[in-house]
Amino acid sequence: MSIVVGNILTGTVTGITNFGAFVQLPGGVTGLVHISEVADSYVKDIKDYLKDREEVKVKVLSVEKDGKIGLSIRQANPKPASSPSTSSNSRPPSHRPRRQVPDISFEDRLAKFLKDSDEKHQDLKKHTDSKRGGRGAKGY
């Protein structure tokens, strides 16, 4: 049986490493399932997901000239259909109420920001000067 990119095959886990799992495919060839291709969620320890000699369904991702075969378990298993109201780009609904922004112009907001910033600068300067001994203090 030839191994073609995109095919979904059944194989047997023959070895587990900290970076992935080796899977023997039909025909005796072996490919690698990288740890990032094991599950849709973050996989810290691959042994929590796979066992040696376990049969798994894999999708062929790549076949290199040197004979290396890249496989994916997570892409071989179809994802559950999402509802029409949910898209992959949308955020989950927030449970806190949205803040109401008063309808004021940009110039008014900028003026308020500058005033607040200037006040904070003055407070910081007073605080720093008092630690140094004030304006007329002798040097170091």
UniProtKB/TrEMBL annotation:
<dbReference type="InterPro" id="IPR050437">
    <property type="entry name" value="Ribos_protein_bS1-like"/>
</dbReference>
<feature type="domain" description="S1 motif">
    <location>
        <begin position="6"/>
        <end position="74"/>
    </location>
</feature>
<protein>
    <submittedName>
        <fullName>RNA-binding protein S1</fullName>
    </submittedName>
</protein>
<dbReference type="InterPro" id="IPR012340">
    <property type="entry name" value="NA-bd_OB-fold"/>
</dbReference>
<feature type="region of interest" description="Disordered">
    <location>
        <begin position="69"/>
        <end position="140"/>
    </location>
</feature>
<dbReference type="GO" id="GO:0003729">
    <property type="term" value="F:mRNA binding"/>
</dbReference>
<dbReference type="GO" id="GO:0003735">
    <property type="term" value="F:structural constituent of ribosome"/>
</dbReference>
<dbReference type="GO" id="GO:0006412">
    <property type="term" value="P:translation"/>
</dbReference>
<feature type="compositionally biased region" description="Low complexity">
    <location>
        <begin position="78"/>
        <end position="92"/>
    </location>
</feature>
<comment type="function">
    <text>Binds mRNA; thus facilitating recognition of the initiation point. It is needed to translate mRNA with a short Shine-Dalgarno (SD) purine-rich sequence.</text>
</comment>
<feature type="compositionally biased region" description="Basic and acidic residues">
    <location>
        <begin position="106"/>
        <end position="132"/>
    </location>
</feature>
<dbReference type="Pfam" id="PF00575">
    <property type="entry name" value="S1"/>
</dbReference>
<dbReference type="InterPro" id="IPR003029">
    <property type="entry name" value="S1_domain"/>
</dbReference>
